[in-house]
Structures are given as structure tokens and as C-alpha cells.
Amino acid sequence: MSDQTWTDVGLDEVTDVDLPPQPNANPAEASADSHDSAFITPVAMESDPEELFPGDQGTLDPDVRVILVDLLRRRFMTAEANPARWRTLLENQGIIESRLHDLFITLVVDCGRGIAYKRQVSTGEAEGAILLRDDPFTRVETVLLVHLRTLHQRESTAGERAARVDTEELEEQAMSYLDPDVTNIASQQKEVRTAIGRLAREGFLQEEAAGRYRITPLVEVVLSVERLTELATWLRNPQEATP
Q1: Are 191 and 140 in contact (CB under 8 A)?
Q2: Share of the chain above pLDDT 90, in %
Q3: 84, 117, 145, 173 — which has fewest CB within 10 A?
Q4: Residue 88's CB: how many other CB atoms inside 10 A?
């Protein structure tokens, strides 16, 4: 804020000025006109469709802003989960990408699989401006992802549209990679169920019935065939390879 001060003009200086009367002027109307020109009638916020909250300087429509927030909050967005939002994304892809680019983030839209996800851009200008810090997958989550990807690939090769799996199968698969000398089986089971819950929240699993899941195409995005091979090798010999 500026330190400059303003000098008030004395009221007596204003009232001492004699102004000639205006021809055919109605004093009441002149007073009203003067009042209207000096003040702007306030407009209720709800009457202004472009302002969503006081001081709003945004230019995007509300539904487009929701898409932008979803992309920043979630690892993925799928057409299957919300077809209406997917259409909004495609219709406004250019402006959404522009907003993300301002944050050094790029958008990847896979229309074939109906999946959209973001990636952090790594450039000299973006050093120190890293916004995305996704939590890495745990060993148990990685075990489950490899199993899901293997099942998905097998069913796709067989011509099936989707692969399905039960909680019991996932638990059995994960437990086979955990320390067999641990006697607290309940603790291990809890760890596995927590991992299943995260993969479901992330969108890799779609629960169709209690304990019954459909594997989504997200596993193809996260794990390419090459990456699947690398992780499978690491799980078998963790001391010889890195994930």
C-alpha cells in the first residue's frame, strides 16, 4: 500500500461556488440523477452467473473447474466411472491442459481405454515447482498390481472383455510373498486388505459384489508389459533387482 496521503478539499470551498441554473431542470429529478451517477446499485452475488464466490477471478465454467480439481486430486479419471464428466473433459480438453501446463503438469488422455491421468513435467524452469508427489506403492500393493496385470493380460489375450478376481485370491497371492515366519497372521491379513482397499480407491478394482472385483484397464496404464516383467523379477529376487 502506498504511503501517499491525500488532502481533503474543504466543504466550504465547494459550497462557495455559484453554478448557473440548468434550463428546464427539475430539482427533484436533478437530485435523483446526481445520486444515480455517483453510486452503482449493488448486484447480489447469486444474480451474477460468472462469480461463484466473492472476489472470484476464475474464468472457467463450474463443471470445468470440477474436472480440473478431480484431475489434481485423483491419480486417474475414467470414462466408466463418470461418463458426464468424461464428456466435459473431452469438450474442454484444451483449456484444461492449459491450466495444468501453468502448474508444470501435463495431461494424458487415452480415449481408447477411457482413461485420463496427469504427469509432472520435469524441466529446468520447473525445478523446485513440483506439485505432484504421489505416494509410492507398498510391496504388498505392488504384489497385487502385478497379479492384477497378469490376470488382465491373460483374459485380454483370451478375448475376454474384463478379468475378475475375489478377495480370497488376492489375499492368498499377497500372503505368498510375505514373511512365512511371522506368526501374526491377522496383522498380515489386515495389511493385505488395506492394500486391496487402496487399489479399489485408486480405480484398479471395481467392486461388483461383496468381495468380488472387476479389474479395470488402469493396470495397463500403470504396468506396461516391460514393467510387469521387471516387477515380477524383483518380487522373485528383491535383492537382485530394484522396482
Answers
A1: yes
A2: 36
A3: 84
A4: 17
CA angle 210, 153, 75 (to 5 degrees): 65
Query: Among the ranges 154-158, 164-168, 198-202, which has the highest mean pLDDT value?
Result: 164-168
For the cut 70, the answer to whether the pLDDT of residue 123 exceeds it is no
What is the spatial order of strands in the sheet that 76-78 belongs to?
A: 76-78, 115-120, 105-110
